[in-house]
Amino acid sequence: MHDVIKRISDNICERSHQSRSIYLKRMDDAVTHGVNRQKLGCSNLAHAMAPMCHSDKESLAGMIQPNIAIVTAYNDMLSAHEPFKLYPALIKRTLMDAGATGQVAGGVPAMCDGVTQSQPGMELSLFSRDNIAMGTAIALSHNVYDGAMYLGVCDKIVPGLLIGALAFGHLPALFVPAGPMPSGISNAEKSKIRQEFAQGLVSEEALLKAEAASYHSSGTCTFFGTANSNQMLLEMMGLQLPNSSFVNANTPLREALTQHAAKTILTMTEAHGHYKPISSIIDERSFVNAIVGLMATGGSSNHTIHLIAMARAAGIELNWNDFDAISKVTPLMCRMYPNGQADVNHFRDAGGMSVVIAQLLDAGLVHDDVETVVGKGLENYIVEPSISDSSFGFDIGPRLSRDTSVISSHLKPFSNEGGLKLLEGNIGRGVIKTSALKEELFDMEAEAIVFDSQEALQSAFKNGELERDFIAVVRYQGPKANGMPELHGLMPPLGVLQDRGFKVAIVTDGRMSGASGKVVSAIHIVPEAADGGILSKIVTGDRIRLDIHNGNMTLLVAEEILQKRESEFVNLTHNHHGFGRELFATIRQAVSNAEEGASIFDIVGKERG
Question: What domains sit in the chain, N to C, each tagged with a CATH number?
Fold first, then answer.
């Protein structure tokens, strides 16, 4: 085991000892031997099984065979989730063939950040994660289930489902993906047309044609953003079938994987002799493995928020120092858009998670002695699923890449450090995604131009006011201000300016899309402007220095001047109503900062305090 990884793991365990103990005791107290529905009265049980067929009713009444919950994020507006429409019937049929039962316990909301980018609805996106967690808890509250299968893929959905699953940590849990769509037009071509549109060089019709050729069918979008980072993390944490994330949607192999997932969850129930709740799978090492995977693959910066929130649901305390220290010793081994032109289909063809996990194990960078849904040890994930003559199985997977332009190795990585870094200074603390940045961008100093919305920056660009070197300070975009939307709309104009030779960067308390990375972006700044952070005192013309190599982010204004400045108040009421935003007022008031997971939950903190 790498000394630094071991030390970080030990520090997390020590830091989390009290909260983790509280969590595990609660999970132990929730365990019921036998099937959980034994606790229900006859009227309760009759309600639970009323719509079931006769044989399923007999099974539930028999109090022997497990009943599996299906918590689904299905809707047919998200391409990634549309394939889930067929999953419940397939899962229930597979369970029935094994003598067990399954029920759709509940549905949770699933919004598409691709649809809401730069729209008012995007301000609900981050908050939807905790809403999904609560929806998951409501689905499982009926207490007639002996395990649960979670159907979700995209940005906030998987983190929300996992937080909910950990609240019911006494239940076995297994996550089931839908798989990516086939590859469309190249990412390079898509990015080129977006920037041409930002400059007014192509029509809206041409832009829509290009976008529709990229996002063109059912299945997950193929770039390596937050959704596909979710799938990678679930494998690193042992919560999904091995090397299953990137098998295409609506294929015979994907259907076989879903059936195998249903069979696998049964093996984890007490009735089948090997009770394995999610609380016995997920521990501090699971989250260290997840962070290592994030760095090695160049995954989404959104997970510097989500992983912290998910960990806290299991009584585990992570912080950005953990991410930064892990990044410094983890080689970047993958080139997928936005830090390369390949997509997740190319990644799968190169060997996918089998190669990544094998390389990380060989380098001693991940814990192998962890529990997973398929047995003890991450070595179980160095496989490839296959189907031949209607026979499904797992073959020995590759340990070396089939395409070193997409997946390299720990000995010859694309970079010696991972894809994310911590930035600190008098502005506060934040993170930056470095995997797609050119080396010459790692040290920058320029005048600030202050914006209080991404629309203001876009307007300045269209008016020709940004033809120079500058650092855009886009503030009042944090969770307390307006729900911390992704500021994906900033990428095309700033990318154009960068291509024209100007040095440009962003400093913001907001988020960037998981598909961003070309422009230097210091994001998730805490304290946020709405919380009285230094961001609220910066004025246009101040100079800012970003020294990414050394992790420094400095406002070059004397301390005595800053102390005399008043925070600039920005009226945010227009962000607090319309498109349902008024319904989330209490969340904006209660939400924690980005480094604390931007969450309304304090699952064990009050008792600990």
Answer: 3-182+217-329 (no CATH), 420-575 (3.50.30.80)
